[in-house]
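Batch manifest, entry 17 of 40.
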Amino acid sequence: MSGKERVVFLDRAAFTADELPIPGFEHNWSEYPDTEAVDIVPRLFWATIAITHACPLDAEAIEQLHKLKRIIVTGPAKVDADACVVCGIAVRQLPASDATGLVNLLEALVAEAEH
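Output type: structure tokens
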């Protein structure tokens, strides 16, 4: 894989800094306390990995995100699974209480993509 992963957390306020430290792999990290529907596409436009807790991602948004490869859902967010399949985007659901698992999952996904 060439270039750094671009990770965007749409609604970081769901976790404290202690609960979810920024992962250690080489990447660009952006986070927002919360994200309104109108801001989803601009915030994710260059992202390769999106993390959402409660921000829904519908087909209209997903179809505009040509660099996005993975979506990690940590809570009740609704993600259009059919649109993700069509666009080749992998979706992973992670329990909200498993912040350590989120960091581990991100690192494993990046390592997997590099091979």
